[in-house]
Structures are given as C-alpha cells and as structure tokens.
Amino acid sequence: MNTDIRKLLEGVSDGTVSIDDALLKLKTKPFEDIGYAKVDMHRKLRQGTAEVIYGAGKTPEQIIGIAETMLKNGQNTILITRLSAETASEIGKYHPLNYYKDARCGIIGPMPVPDGSGKVVVATGGTSDIPVAEEAALTAAVLGNEVVRLYDVGVAGLHRILAHLDDIMSASVIIAIAGMEGALASVIGGLADCPVIAVPTSVGYGASFNGLSALLSMLNSCASGVSVVNIDNGFGAGYLANMINHMNVRKES
Predict the structure, then answer these.
(1) Looking at the chain, which terminus has fewer C-beta neighbours within 10 angstroms, N or C?
(2) Boundaries of each PurE domain copy (predicted)?
(3) How many angstroms separate the CA atoms of 227 and 224, rounded?
(4) What is the DSSP letter of 147?
(5) DSSP state of 146
(6) Residues contacting residue 48 through CB under 8 Å, at least 6 positions apart
(7) 185 exposure class (CB count in 10 Å sphere: 0-12, 13-18, 19+)
C-alpha cells in the first residue's frame, strides 16, 4: 500500500489524526484545473511520488502557474525537467530555483534527506553522456535517494569500470548510460547482483542513428536483469531506480 495512505490510516488508528482530518485529506479534489493544465494532487497518494513538471514546450508563465498550484497544495519540492536556461531565468523571478544546466533540470524547494534502502549508482560510458546521466541522478536525488556517480567508465577502457567494483557490488540499483554501441549496460549487468536500468543516448557517429543502435544493443543484452528505457530518457531511469530503491521501505512501513 502507498506509504502516505498507510501513515494516514495508522494516524487514525493511534489517535494522532482525527477521522475528520483523514476524510478531508482523502476527499480533497484529485486534481486542480487551472485552464491549461490539470495538476494532479493525488499522485503522491496513489504512487508515492508527487507530479513532476515536463518543461519542454511549456511557456514560463505556464510552468510558474503549475508550480504555484503545487506549492499551494503542499508539495515542498518540485522537479522541472527539460528546462531551458532562458525559461529557468524567468521562473527564478517568481520562485527560488536551482538550475542545473547539464541536466536541463530545475528544482524548487529543498532536496529531501535520502530514505531509500541503498545507493543508486549512475554510470556513463563517456563524458558526452553526462547530460542524460545528470537528469537521471537529479531525479533520483529529488525523490529521496543517495546517488553515486561513475562517469566516463566505458568499455573502450574496461579497467575504468573495474576500478569501481565496490560501488557496483554495493548498489541497490544501477543506471547504465551509454551511446555508440551501448555495451556498458551488458558489462555492468554481468557484474552486478542488482537491477540494471540501461539508458541509450543519442551520442555517436552516423551509423548510431541518434541512439537507435545503442537502444537495440541494450534490448538484446545477454546479461540478465537489464531493463531498458527510451533514448536519452534519464528522467525515466531515475524514476524507476527510485521505485526499486524504495521497495523495502514500503514493505517496512
């Protein structure tokens, strides 16, 4: 069961939350219609993670309005993905915003204290994959995970990843990010005893087809326990890693 709902019901059971307050919490409308967006207020209750704003294609005014609605309804930390520097500058005039240029992400509010069951390792084949990796790493961190970054550890110099076996072996989940032929995911998948999330990137020369080559390689990985998200989808990988890293937390709560 979702952790927030369980805590609410436990509060009713032990008397720290009144029945009326619990009813009010559950009856609050599930979304708020602000004209150009229907902001999902029950996402955290349903899925354990509040809504994230996808910034691409939205005007600064739209993002500001959505963020204000979230803040008004008690969301303390807001992640905005695929956010341009120009739009971030406009948002910053209305809300304190930390902008991460490489990741193209903005964060309103404080970073949470990590409460996952272990560490999320984010590894890249090369330096050119770092923008996608930073989107994944920031997403995982915003959702309450301790993140370890291993950058530029691709298979062209296999000794580089082998130098970090302690991090690989102690991870709860690993995000392997690579372009070109995408071999990093198979190598890590053959070393680790935890789930591996492969992220193909659009990095590479012509025959890489903007990430399609890496995507197909990762989908055909011979290593067991490797799942694959879409090309350049660092957010999706970070979100999935968060879910995996909080499975034991949900069972214990």
Answers:
(1) N
(2) 118-250
(3) 9
(4) E
(5) E
(6) 2, 3, 4, 243, 246, 250
(7) buried
pLDDT along the chain (253 residues), means of 10: 63 79 65 72 67 91 92 87 95 93 93 91 96 97 95 91 93 96 94 96 93 96 93 96 84 55
Residue where the block lists tokens 């550890």: 153
State both tokens at 222.
Answer: 């011979």
Distance CA 218, CA 214 (A): 6
User: What residues are paired with 200 via a beta bridge?
Assistant: 178
The three-class DSSP label of residue 33 is strand
The fold adopted by the segment(s) 119-250 is Rossmann fold (3.40.50)
State the angle between helix axes of 19-27 and 3-14 in degrees (0 to 180), rounded to the nearest 10: 160
pLDDT, tens digit (0-9, with 9 covering 90-100), for 139-151: 999 999 999 999 9
Taking only the tens place, the pLDDT of each residue in 179-225 is 999 999 999 999 999 999 999 999 999 999 999 999 999 999 999 88
At residue 93, what is the residue type? K
Half-sphere exposure (Cβ direction) of 88: Cα atoms closer than 13 Å = 19
**Which token pair is 111?**
């970073």
CB of 150 closer than 8 Å to CB of 137 = no
SS3 45: helix
In terms of pTM, does the model score above 0.90? no
Q: Each residue of 189-202: b (16+ CB within 10 Å) or e?
A: bebbebbbbbbbbb
